[in-house]
Design goal:
The complex is a heterodimer of chains A (211) and B (238). Chain A has 211 residues and is α+β, with helices and mostly antiparallel strands. Chain A has eight helices and four strands. Classes of the chains: A alpha+beta (211), B mainly beta (238). Chains A and B meet through helix 6 and helix 8 of A and strand 2, strand 12 and helix 3 of B.
C-alpha cells in the first residue's frame, strides 16, 4: 500500500498525539514528518504557515487534501478510512453526541492545552487559574462518564469508542503534566483503562506504558 | 485535625477496579488505594521506599503492585519481593511499605491510620454506588450542607421530609420516605473533603433510573456547597 497519509508531527504535542492515536486505532499506515516546534518554532515558518496559517499542528496530508484543525482531521480520517463507520457514526444521536464532544474538545479543553504548554514550555499564562479551569473542564468529563456508567456505557458518545474518546483522552491522560492528579476522577480512570485496552492504542511521552 | 484512630472512607468500592490503583489523601497524608487481581483492596502509604515515587503511579500485576520508576514489586503485606535490576537478590525485609487496616462496607473502601481501629460490625446491608464528590471545604461545612438540599424520594407518592442522621463520626445517612443514602466523610486535608455516596437497598430497585435520580441530588449538593462561600477554593488545586 502506498503511503498517502502524511502527518506533520511534533512528538510532545497532544493534538498531534490525537491524530497518531486515530491513525493507529484505525490501523492505517502513515508517514510522519518531524517538525521542530520547541525550541525551533519551525511550525511558524513560511512553509508551514502556507499549510496552516494559524501556525498550529497537526497538519495532515491525504493525497491532494491538506487539512488542519485536530477535530476536522479526526473526522476526515474516520469518514474516509473507517468502512465500519463506528469511529464517526453516520447519523442520529450517536453522531450528534460525537459532534458535541468534539466541540467540547476543541473549545473547553483548550485551557488544558494552555496549562500543559505553560508547564512544559513556559508559554504565557497564570498557572493557578489555568489549572483551576482545566480541573473544571476535566470534572465535566468525569460527571458525564459517571452518568454513562449508570447506563452501563463505557464510552463518551456511543456504545463503542468513537473519535470523541480519542479527542478527549490526552487531556486526562496527560493531566499530571500540569499538576492535576487522577485521584478525584474515578469515572475517567475507569474510562482511560478501557481506552488503553483498545487494539492499536499507543502512548506518548508523559503517558506510562504500564498501567 | 485529628481522627486517625477512626475508620475513614477513601473511595467507593466501584472506583477501584481489580488490577488498578489510585492515590488519595487522608488528613493530608498521601495514600495509595489498590485492588489486586483477586479483588482484595489495599490501602498503603503512597511512597516507594526506594526513591520516594508515588506507588499510585505504578501498576498492579496479580497480587503485587510495582513502582513505575524501577519496577520494584511489593506483595500484599507491603514487603518488596522483587527488584528487577537485581533479579537474584533476596530482598531484605526492611524494604517495606507501611500498610493500613482496610475493609469494605456500604459500598465504600475504609481505612484507619491507627493500628487498632475500633471494632465495627458488618451489617451486610446491600448498597449500590452513587458517586464521590470532591469539595474545597472543611469536613464540618460539608456535613452541615447535607440537609440543605431537598432530597426527593425515588419511588414514593408526593414529597417527604428528608432527615440527616449521624451513624459514626465519618458516616452519615440521608433518609427520605423509603430511600436512604449513605454518605462517607473523608477529610482529605483541612481544606478539602470527599463525600462518598451509596444508595441503600437492592441493586434491582435503584440501578439506572434510581442512580440518575440521586445523582441529581448529589450535583445539587455540590453546587450548593460551592456557591455558599464555604468552598471558595472549590476548584482550586488539589
Amino acid at each position: 500500500m502506498s503511503v498517502a497519509l502524511v502527518l506533520y508531527n511534533y512528538e510532545l504535542d497532544e493534538s498531534c498525539y490525537k491524530v497518531r492515536l486515530a491513525l493507529s486505532l484505525l490501523g492505517l499506515q502513515w508517514q510522519a514528518v518531524a517538525v521542530d516546534v520547541f525550541p525551533g518554532k519551525e511550525h511558524l515558518t513560511p512553509p508551514y504557515l502556507a499549510l496552516n496559517p494559524s501556525g498550529r499542528l497537526p497538519i495532515l496530508r491525504d493525497g491532494d487534501l491538506v487539512l488542519h484543525g485536530t477535530e476536522a482531521i479526526l473526522a476526515h480520517l474516520a469518514r474516509a478510512h473507517d468502512p465500519s463507520n463506528k469511529w464517526l457514526p453516520i447519523e442520529g444521536a450517536d453522531f450528534a453526541r460525537v459532534m458535541q464532544w468534539l466541540t467540547f474538545s476543541a473549545h473547553d479543553l483548550g485551557v488544558t492545552l494552555a496549562a500543559r504548554q505553560h508547564s512544559l514550555f513556559d508559554t504565557p499564562g497564570e498557572e493557578l487559574s489555568l489549572r483551576a479551569a482545566s480541573a473544571q473542564a476535566i470534572r465535566i468529563m468525569d460527571d458525564h462518564m459517571t452518568a454513562r456508567g449508570f447506563a452501563h456505557a463505557d464510552w463518551f458518545a456511543a456504545e463503542h469508542a468513537t473519535i470523541a474518546d480519542i479527542a478527549l483522552f490526552p487531556a486526562f491522560a496527560l493531566s499530571r503534566d500540569f499538576g492535576i492528579d487522577h485521584d478525584e476522577y474515578p469515572a475517567l480512570r475507569r474510562w482511560a483503562r478501557r481506552f488503553r485496552g483498545l487494539p492499536g492504542f499507543k502512548t506518548m511521552p508523559g503517558i506510562p506504558d504500564y498501567h | 485535625m485529628t481522627g486517625g484512630d477512626n475508620w475513614h472512607p477513601v473511595g467507593l468500592s466501584h472506583s477501584i477496579e481489580a488490577g488498578s490503583s489510585a492515590g488519595t489523601r487522608l488528613f493530608g497524608q498521601e495514600l495509595v488505594v489498590w485492588r489486586d487481581a483477586g479483588g482484595v483492596v489495599h490501602v498503603w502509604e503512597d511512597r516507594c521506599p526506594h526513591r520516594g515515587m508515588k506507588l499510585s503511579f505504578g501498576f498492579v500485576r496479580g497480587d503485587h503492585i510495582a513502582c513505575l520508576y524501577h519496577g520494584w514489586q511489593y506483595d500484599r503485606g507491603g514487603y518488596c519481593q522483587y527488584v528487577p535490576a537485581h533479579p537474584d537478590l533476596e530482598v531484605p525485609k526492611t524494604f517495606k511499605v507501611p500498610v493500613y487496616p482496610t475493609r469494605e462496607q456500604g459500598g465504600m473502601i475504609w481505612t484507619s491510620l491507627s493500628e487498632n481501629p475500633p471494632a465495627w460490625p458488618d451489617d451486610g446491608e446491600p448498597t449500590l454506588r452513587l458517586r464521590s464528590l470532591y469539595l474545597g471545604c472543611r469536613v464540618d461545612a460539608a456535613i452541615a450542607a447535607l440537609g440543605g438540599v431537598r432530597l426527593i424520594p425515588f419511588a414514593a407518592d408526593g414529597p417527604a421530609d428528608a432527615t440527616v442522621s449521624r451513624v459514626t463520626d465519618t458516616l452519615f445517612a440521608v433518609s427520605c420516605a423509603q430511600d436512604r443514602l449513605l454518605v462517607g466523610i473523608q477529610a482529605i486535608s483541612n481544606a478539602r473533603t470527599a463525600l462518598h455516596i451509596s444508595i441503600c437497598g437492592r441493586p434491582e430497585r435503584y440501578e439506572g433510573p434510581g442512580q440518575n435520580h440521586f445523582l441529581g441530588w448529589a450535583l445539587q449538593l455540590r453546587h450548593a456547597i460551592e456557591r455558599s462561600g464555604q468552598a471558595s477554593a472549590a476548584l482550586e488545586a488539589h
